[in-house]
Amino acid sequence: MALTLDQLNAASVPEAVAMLDGVYEHSPWIAEAALSERPFRSLAHLKHAMVQALQAAGADAQLALIRAHPELAGKAMVSQSLTAESTNEQSKAGLTDCNPEEFARIQQLNADYNTRFGFPFILAVRGPRGTGLPRSEIIDTFARRLANPVDFERGEALRNIHRIAEIRLADKFGAEPTLGHDVWDWHERLAQHSDPGYAEQGQLTVTYLTDAHRACAQRISRGMRECGFDEVEIDAVGNVVGRYHGSAPDAKYLLTGSHYDTVRNGGKYDGRLGIFVPMAAVRELHRQGKRLPFGIEVVGFAEEEGQRYKATFLGSGALIGHFDQTWLEQQDQDGVTMRQAMQNAGLCVDDIPKLRRERERYLGFVEVHIEQGPVLTELDIPLGIVTSINGCARYVCEMIGMASHAGTTPMDRRRDAALGVAELALYMEQRASQDPGSVATMGMVHVPGGSINVVPGRCAFSLDMRAPTDAQRDALVADVLAMLQSIAQRRGLQYTAELAMQASAAPSDPAWQQRWEAAVQALGVPLYRLPSGAGHDAMKLHELMPQAMLFVRGLNSGISHNPLESTTSDDMQLAVDAFSHLLKQLAAENA
Amino acid sequence: MALTLDQLNAASVPEAVAMLDGVYEHSPWIAEAALSERPFRSLAHLKHAMVQALQAAGADAQLALIRAHPELAGKAMVSQSLTAESTNEQSKAGLTDCNPEEFARIQQLNADYNTRFGFPFILAVRGPRGTGLPRSEIIDTFARRLANPVDFERGEALRNIHRIAEIRLADKFGAEPTLGHDVWDWHERLAQHSDPGYAEQGQLTVTYLTDAHRACAQRISRGMRECGFDEVEIDAVGNVVGRYHGSAPDAKYLLTGSHYDTVRNGGKYDGRLGIFVPMAAVRELHRQGKRLPFGIEVVGFAEEEGQRYKATFLGSGALIGHFDQTWLEQQDQDGVTMRQAMQNAGLCVDDIPKLRRERERYLGFVEVHIEQGPVLTELDIPLGIVTSINGCARYVCEMIGMASHAGTTPMDRRRDAALGVAELALYMEQRASQDPGSVATMGMVHVPGGSINVVPGRCAFSLDMRAPTDAQRDALVADVLAMLQSIAQRRGLQYTAELAMQASAAPSDPAWQQRWEAAVQALGVPLYRLPSGAGHDAMKLHELMPQAMLFVRGLNSGISHNPLESTTSDDMQLAVDAFSHLLKQLAAENA
Q1: What region does A294 belong to: left with phi over 0, alpha with psi -120 to 50, or beta?
Q2: Which residue range forms the structural domain that includes residue A481?
Q3: Residue limits of the Oxo-4-hydroxy-4-carboxy-5-ureidoimidazoline decarboxylase domain (chains A, B) (predicted)?
């Protein structure tokens, strides 16, 4: 019979510690320390208290905890002496059925890993869905993590321990994240569609109006109908639009959604999470036969990534009346124009202007998105409140010095283009670090035709600078460009710097951001605010109506645009719960 | 009637200033200041005194001198109002015959140049051979120099003014550098041979045992015979060996020479100068019917650059018994093995071991070489004494961090591989600057697959470190590698660093270096010592016998491995004179 939070909150400390026995391997002290935070408002609250207890305990205690895990993912994976707990977890991952090659490979990895890190490899083998990882994925993860820097890998071990604890807690409390599992499964199903050339290799690529893309639209449409949306349509640019009516025919709408296209060999959750989370919340309303004083319009945007055509944010742009007619004549790599692709998909180009939404018919726009960054996962916090979508400026630059012989040109007679760039890179790092939320990156650095024995005469490089407000970005850009000039002058270099892109910041609307904060707090999840460094469809809607975003933690350092992009069904459940809470709150406000 | 140095030395100051009138445009004060250095031992001495007078006068006086030159290479180039002096120089360069397009182009360049630099374009239009530059070359130089940094171009203007003065002095004193002109012409003639694919584009490329290479050997052989060498042969690896017998049949030999192969699209003087300068000196001996108490063996080494095959220093290596038999099976880019190439050239591979020289038969080895660096030209000094051929160590490296999203990864959570490399590059610059004669270069820097919006996860780079002694090089290498490790540790990066090449320093033999110094001083040329940053055949001979090198100033910042490599026939004359002086001194020692 499952535990309840009430029982845990009411129990004496020794009783409560006993209730939480085994959640953290051989470490009842973690439960004991966390209990000082009682009463727990939610499982999320309890989990975070335990995370904090371990954090506060310091590096030695953390290492001891990691080392208390030999059997879980180490030798025990392939031995007969599994603990009952571990046996259960291992068998869910199928690890008890290793063939001899897999067995040998795991043994070798264990040996290498221990040599390199001095602690055992820890992996939550039940995986982000709780149903177990394939053996091949476990082995791949093992091999990949072997290459991590030591301190990073220690953090990764702890994160896996917290994930194991989360799964064990769910078992103890009988708290299956059923909505999260559904959302997880919807992503899996949608990810079965991939463009030719990628599908064959198991890679996910869905670009604008390919067969796979149109299949995705079809699947999302059908999913929306199954969830109980009243109207579902694919619009003139391929957006999938589902409307769940409000209680009154003239009710305003809450607009939400995100994109279903992907980058090449991308992740499964980028964009799509922002479609499926609201769909799950609407399904709950529909199941309960509930209508709100406002309608809910969920849009699966057809295009955000600008992959097949250079037309980033095409889907959300259409909703605010941005559609560049010259895009229609762009050709993809096979020479197919966008116009042909749209005709082929049965889309009516002439109707695009009609997609523009009327501001007064909407309450605002919210968007759920996977973080695509490491912040939440490193803090062990499942949800994050977006304060602003950072403004951005990008430059493509070249530093020009004089190429000369590396042996014969004395140090004080050089005009080394790469050294000027090196100085600028380090200045950028230091300058961006001064401002909260700013980032600056030199992503491309190249000495063209460089030789080991030639002082670089040229160095091509790029600048990417972002900040939560335009003013903060502009100050950053001005300082970096001024430094570029001063370095060039001091070193006798010349340079070019071409603005490649500039986008305004989209600060979250305070009232809408506050609604997300209230939702997250109601779940017992710690409140964490962060800017979004990446651009999102919300940037476009920002130009028409108030907007605010919710981030969901990503695993694997928050890696994105990569097949390793991942999150858990537990975190997805929290996102659905937060969305539902936001609806409830909005209903109360509009009652 | 030509002036003589004796007249100049004996004259009163006003008389002497009048004698030197017009050498520096409208600036008799330069002559006047230089006269305090009387008596002048040579024209070289006078020239250097004038260079120093201008140097001492400071930036304002230098700029005034540059601005005193409007007619020379500015408007006057194409106007009718040329001074008598300029008319003479201009007509030698054919500048008075500009067609309308050239006229318009030069006018545009003059306008652009004046706008950019604020002073007129100065070029010694009579060129390094004194016989005038083609109009197309003048225009190309003009366009190229327009891109120079301002302070560099000011130096280049002054260097051209000194060159103009040198030509005018030669006219006044009737001092044609006839031997220098011959050596110049020999280079021109040899440069007519170039490998297919390059010859068609007017580029000079002579790689091991191509038809062009074999034609060069043939021409050098014939040139040696014409100079009066007693024995001339092409040896088993293609070296051209000329011997001028000593006065006694058992006399020892002075060994000298350099290589006649080139890099791809290389310069005309790299290597070859060290063959032709001794040839000219031997021709003088032969003309005078003179024998020395030692023989002179001049070797044109067949291979130094390692272009067609990876077998650098093949020619000089053979003389010390270094010939790697595995080289024979190396294939060039057309699949031709070195063995086939040698057979095709009629070379007898079996005889290679016999090329090894017996130490006791030689006095030592000297080598004349163009500097391939900017030191002498920037100091306005025509010859340089090499103190050591720098030891070298090269590494091919990679820094490995974690690629992540440039927008979403906060500054303090990055593992930016390129920033670690940037730090190391700046450290190298600072560390190498601490030691006299050391250089350190990061010639290759590349973020593979870098994107404007991705934090670099990898950065490939190279290290090239050189120093006049092995101990100094080793200390430099150790410090740089220690810093690499410390940067990587601090930034959570990993790295690989693979030693790609290591060569020992070859310090000049003190007695032989002293002979070059005496020769240079006897010419009235200021003494300047410098290490050789580049490798030379002398490094190989160093392993068998004492050696010392003489450098000849290169124009165009001493650029090398480039068609712009150049030097003047005046400097070549000085090199022949220095070589002849060294022979004379050695004869006296061995009398």
Answers
A1: beta
A2: 392-503
A3: 9-170
